[in-house]
Amino acid sequence: MKRKRPFWTNRNIKTMAVIVVFSLALTFSIIAGARLISRPDKETKPIQTEDEGLSGGEEVKFGNEMLPVVGDVDKSSYDINLFKQLENGRMIYDSRTVKTWTGIDVSAHRDEIDWEAVKSDGVDFAMIRVGWRGNTEGKVNLDEYFHTNMKGASEAGLEVGVYFYSQAISKEEAVEEAESVIDWIKEYKITYPVVFDWEYVSADARTGTLSNETLNECALAFCETIEKAGYMPMIYFNLDMGYRRYDLAKIGKYDFWLAEYDGAPTFYYNFQMLQYTSGGTVKGCDENVDLNLSFVDYAARSKQRRG
C-alpha cells in the first residue's frame, strides 16, 4: 500500500503562509481605501438635524464650553482662509465670487470727521449711532453728533445706516426706542440697516438681571417696528451674546452684525456684516475707529425695496 503524503509539508506551509499574508494585505488595503474615500479634505462642521430648535446631539465649542447647535439657523458659509489682514490694519475677504464692502461705525465719542477724506480712503459705508438709552435712569437720548455725521457722510457720497444703543428691559421700551429712531432718521436716505445694539453693562445696571427670553422679545419688537416703517432691521452682537444670550432661531429672520476681533471670524453661524477691529485708522478720523466688512450690497437691496 502506498503511503499517503502528509499535507503539512514545508512546501504547503510556505504556500499557505503566502496566501494568508496576501489575504491580510488585501483586507487592510480595502479598509484603508474606504477610510481614505470617506475622509473629507478639510474638517467639516457637524450636520444639523432639527429637534425643537436644537440639533440631534451636535455641539459647537465656545471657550471651554460645548454648546448645542441651534436648528434652523444658517451656518457660516465663509472660508476662514480667505480673510486676509492687510498692513494698514484693514481686513479683506479674498474671494473671486463673494464681494464685500468696507465700512466704519461712529458715535459722538469720536471727534468731528472729515467725511470727504473718509470716502477717499476706500470706505463705502458708515454706520452712525442715532441714539442711546441710559444705563441707569433709562432715558432715550439722541446722539449729539448724529445729524452732523449723517449730513457729512451722505454729502460725501457714502452709503449710510444707523444703530441704536439699547438698554431696553421690555418690549414696550424696545418699541419706544424704535419709534424714536424712525422719527430721527425720517429726513435722511438710509441705505444700510437700522440696527438694534443691546449690550450687557454690569450686574448693577438696570439691565443687569434681564432674562434671555425678554432680551429676545426686545430685539424682535425693535426689528418688527423698524421693518414696518420700511427700513431694513439688523441685530448686533458679539460672540458671547450670540452664543449665550440670543435665541438665534427666534431672531434669525433678521440679519446679523457680528463683532469679533483678532483675525478671521470663528462664529459658527452665518452673519451679514462683520466688525473686526476697534483700532482702525482711516483718513479724516483723528482717532481709531471700528472697521467693518459687509457681505451684502445693502444699497442695492435698499434701492429694490424703494422700487
Condensed summary:
It contains eight helices and 13 strands.
Structural commentary:
By secondary structure, the protein is of the alpha/beta class. It contains eight helices and 13 strands. It starts with 9 loop residues before the first helix and ends with a helix. Mean pLDDT is 86; it is low at 1-10 and 24-55.
Helix content: 25-40%
Let me know the average pLDDT: 86
Total number of helices: 8
Structural class: alpha/beta
Largest sheet: 8 strands, mixed, barrel
Let me know the number of strands: 13
**Percentage of residues in strands:** 25-35%
What order do the helices and strands come in, and which of them pair?
Blueprint (H helix, E strand, L loop, with lengths): L9 H29 L15 E9 L2 E6 L12 E3 L5 E3 L7 E6 L8 H6 L4 E9 L6 E3 L3 H10 L3 E8 L4 H15 L8 E5 L13 H17 L4 E6 H7 L2 H4 L3 E5 L13 E8 L8 E6 L3 H9 L1
Helix pairs in contact: 4-5
For the structure shown, list the relevant keywords:
307 residues; alpha/beta; 8-stranded mixed barrel; two-stranded antiparallel ribbon; 32% helix
